[in-house]
Specification:
The protein is an alpha+beta fold. The chain has 2 domains: about 25-135, Phosphorylase Kinase, domain 1, CATH 3.30.200.20; about 140-320, Transferase(Phosphotransferase), domain 1. It is about 30% helix and about 20% strand. The protein is built from 9 helices and 15 strands. The protein has helices at about 35-40, 90-110, 140-145, 155-175, 235, 245-260, 270-280, 290-300, 310-315; strands at about 10, 45-50, 50-60, 65-70, 80-85, 120-125, 130-135, 140, 175, 185-190, 195, 205, 205-210, 215-220, 225. The strands form 5 sheets. The chain has a 6-stranded antiparallel sheet. A 3-stranded antiparallel sheet has the order 8-10-11. A two-stranded antiparallel ribbon has the order 1-15. Helix 6 packs antiparallel against helix 8 (about 290-300). The two termini are about 30 Å apart.
């Protein structure tokens, strides 16, 4: 049975059972609101920079943050306001948020793709940091998968997964890896049949620039993070790894969950050590009703040897997408 892929682990607290899983089920802006009405509602407590009005309507909740509905007063554009409370002694959480802001800013300005949630602005308060994000229509892909306890039809899964592969291929081509790809971090709009990837707190760059020559070189990842059920074997071993290949593994888990309705590596009691042991052995069962093409695709993505996994770009030309 498919369930939320908790807990999230970060080095060195690899058994942390308090993930920040923010569900943002956004709705359209109420038609009766006007700009003058919004301005009248603004106070020092519910406005940011005199530009955004923050409404009390909650769109999502996380372990360290909450997401509220808001509006850009000038453009009348609805936004999502992610409010993260500052706490002393949480340097790792601060670094993670700084990283998310930097990566999202880069994606918004340089890539500007509809596949990724956009970051419009950041505000600092005495006790809070506020991220002004694109407001997304739809719900988690996880919720859609729950409608198919034995796996969704391959044709529907294919249309959705192809978009996800396009998004991740674009991400990798811009030297960025996500490192926490999972059903809960992909939003799906059933009306437009489109996806959007969010939660870039663990994302990282795959190249470094020499400060003297300006030359870029590939770097391995040393941030051992992500969600337990989606963790690649090399991440569990806590050795420097290729982030792009780790993303491909997570996508293999995600595809398996979509077409099978369950995780390939799981434990009835959610025992982390047991799940990790199964991932390291790489043994799992695929249902007999799956097509040969998707079976071969999943097997290639879930190779325990990262060197044997195809790239996201190569997977876009896989025969399954042409059947």
């Amino acid at each position: 049975m498919l369930h939320v892929a908790n807990p999230v682990y970060t080095n060195p607290l690899i058994t942390n059972k308090n993930p920040e899983t923010t569900t943002m089920l956004y709705q359209s802006m109420p038609s009766h609101l006007s700009r003058s009405y919004l301005i009248q509602q603004m106070t020092p407590r519910n406005s940011l920079g005199g530009k955004y009005l923050v409404l009390p309507k909650k769109l999502g909740q996380g372990a360290q943050s909450r997401v509220l509905e808001g509006f850009n007063i000038d453009s009348f554009q609805p936004v999502a306001v992610k409010i993260v409370r500052k706490k002393e002694g949480q340097e790792v959480a601060k670094q993670q948020l700084d990283n998310e802001i930097r990566i999202l800013g880069q994606l918004t300005k340089e890539v500007n793709s509809d596949y990724f949630v956009k970051l419009y602005d950041v505000f600092e308060r005495k006790l809070e940091r506020c991220l002004i994000l694109e407001k997304i229509d739809g719900g988690e892909l996880y919720n859609l998968c729950l409608q198919y306890p034995h796996g969704m039809p391959e044709q529907r899964a294919k249309a959705i997964f192809y978009q996800i592969m396009q998004a991740v291929s674009l991400l990798h081509s811009n030297s960025i890896v996500h490192l926490d790809l999972k059903l809960e971090n992909i939003m799906y709009n059933q009306e437009t049949s489109t996806i959007k990837i969010l939660d870039f707190g663990f994302a990282s760059e795959t190249t470094s620039t020499d400060p003297f020559t300006g030359r870029k070189s590939d770097v391995l990842q040393t941030n051992f993070c992500g969600s337990v059920h989606y963790a690649a074997p090399e991440v569990i071993k806590q050795k420097p790894y290729d982030g792009k290949k780790a993303d491909v593994w997570s996508l293999g888990i995600l595809l398996f969950a979509m077409v099978c309705g369950q995780f390939p590596f799981d434990d009835p009691s959610d025992d982390i050590d047991s799940i990790f042991e199964k991932i390291l052995t790489g043994r799992y069962r695929l249902p007999g009703h799956l097509s040969q093409e998707v079976t071969e695709m999943i097997m290639s993505m879930l190779s325990t040897n990262p060197e044997h996994r195809p790239s996201a770009k190569d997977l876009l030309s896989h025969p399954w997408f042409r059947v």
